[in-house]
Amino acid sequence: MGRVTAPNQALPVPPADLPGTLGALRAAGHRYQTVKQELRHNLLARMRSGEDRFPGIVGYDDSVLPEVERALLAGHDMVLLGERGQGKTRLIRALVTLLDEWTPVLPGSVLNEHPLHPLTPASRALVTEAGDDLPIGWLHRTMRYGEKLATPDTSVGDLIGDVDPIRIAQGRTLGDPETIHFGLVPRTNRGIFAVNELPDLAERIQVALLNVLEERDIQVRGYQLRLPLDLFLVASANPEDYTNRGRIITPLKDRFGAEVRTHYPVDLELELALIRQEADLVAEVPEHVLEVLARFARAVRESPSVDPRSGVSARFAIAAAETVAAAALRRAGLLAGPAGSPAAGSAPAGAQRGGGSASAVGDATVRPESPVARVGDAVSVTSTLRGKVEFESGEEGREIEVLAHLLRAATAETFRARLAGLDLSGFTALVAEGAMIETGELVSSAELLSQVGTVPGLAKALDRLGLGDAPTPEQAAAGVEFVLEGLHLTRRLGKDVTDSGRTVYGGRS
């Protein structure tokens, strides 16, 4: 469950010191290895050096990765089995980093044939004829990865290949490899081939993979081509798919050497680490807001109102963080416009932390509002992300209500975890005196802080929230709003929403 370099990125240029002929390759002491030997060798080298074996993969160190490593060391093709959004494809693509960075190939070979191990009759004849003077090329590991999303309309020709009628018309005979237009699998020879959502592949098409997995040859139109393919085959599947959308046929399952179960992050810290790594945030999102979103995602997964068979993707929490950041950026943009406050980010004179002399918001200069997310911005995710969740049939029409309840519960849990035992009576005393504090999507930090003024305990609250000793006005406003919402959710403060969409805190809950 982590970010990896996409296999189809622009290729680097081979180093100039790589051998350019077959003779130079032999002289350099190069030895031919199969893909599985190569993966095993490089994995062991990383183990011995202490290098990260799967960079960017989060949450699998003690569960999934040991099983994957055992499969690689055993030379077993494998199936990754798990619900959606568990990082199966990311993990598969990370295997590419265990291949040698550069490998020698015969130039122009669609099968990526190794100069020391040619497959087709034409390539063997070429090597014999040219000998040590044969020019060779070099293939980067990112080009040794093939991937196919299984769909019901996938054909044998797509995966394995088909007879090319043009080449037949040119005089070649059936059964000659030169008459075949090879599919994705043989074109990934000497590499890693992945089939995503394997159960969606029609059963008759799955049969075409049997020989690839066991005998390592291919059959096209009844002609058996003895091409000993060198592949590491890996597939992904959702457990639900075994019975609902389709199934992996028993003979094919039997030919995979390992079945590895994936899972969602097992604890809150791993969920947070995944969000931090994957989310592309357009605004600052404080740690306590990220924690609310992480707890929210976990609560949705565990909710009896949500269909557990489909799961709740890790993309849910990632998209939630990006949505909250976008809401903060929208607020900053609107407040900077003609209708916004010209002093949106200025610090009110009375907004000081903890009743002390240190200012909570820094220098009171007029400046635009900086985009910093608040817990109130998270409300928008309940409507925009409901399509990512499969609800039980009895919850039809209540989706937003269910998500809103779970979001409030996640906010309350985060409030207790972050601010438990802290004296927040200064906030309750403020509203007990009749003060009403307004906040909302388009309330600037200056406007919010000016309503709060000097509150005992604010300094310690901001410190507990990780906002530092000298928060900006926007960070301080985010902390204040979180405290107010937490007090409301723990029934210590009243709350109302006005017709204009502003939230008003005051009185008893």
Summarize the entry for a quick read.
This protein has 509 residues and is α/β, with parallel strands linked by helices.
Could you give the topology of this structure?
Elements (H helix, E strand, L loop, with lengths): L21 H6 L7 H15 L14 H11 L3 E4 L6 H7 L7 E4 L15 H10 L6 E4 L4 E5 L6 H4 L1 E3 L1 H5 L10 E3 L1 H4 L3 E6 L6 H4 L3 H4 L4 E3 L2 E3 L5 E7 L12 H6 L2 E4 L6 H11 L8 H16 L11 H22 L45 H4 L14 H21 L5 H8 L4 E3 L5 H8 L5 H7 L8 H17 L5 E3 L5 E3 L4
Parallel strand pairs: 1-10, 1-11, 4-7, 7-10
Antiparallel strand pairs: 2-3, 5-6, 8-9, 12-14, 13-14
Could you characterize the architecture of this molecule?
The strands form 5 sheets. The protein has a 5-stranded parallel sheet. A 3-stranded antiparallel sheet has the order 12-14-13. The radius of gyration is 30 Å and the shape is elongated. The longest helix has 22 residues. The chain is built from 20 helices and 14 strands. The N terminus is likely disordered. A hairpin with a 5-residue loop joins strand 13 and strand 14. With 509 residues, the protein is of the alpha/beta class.
